[in-house]
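Q: Could you fold this chain for me?
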Amino acid sequence: MFNEIYDLTYLPLLTPYNLIDNLKLDNYTGISYIKVENGILAEITCYINEVLMKFYYEFNSENYLDNIYYYENEQKEYLFNRKDMLEGLRSEYINTKKVGNM
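A: Sure. Below is the predicted structure, expressed as structure tokens.
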């Protein structure tokens, strides 16, 4: 658990540059990048189970991956949310330490 907290705190996990290799895969059709207020937004278009899907990757100003999401029925569905994952792991770690100290 400590390693996961460390990785989410100090490592990019994935950068905008890493996504370019996905275009070599048969089911990927496109990648576009736009500059947004806090960094870069990448839009990935690919086929999943023969359905064309769009996934969005949000990177902060340091090129650290913050979020991955897509839309289903106009509802944003998160596949990855760095902030939420980090908060959950920190909370779990603190609770584990409290139980260990009892």
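A (continued): The helical segments are 2-10, 82-100.
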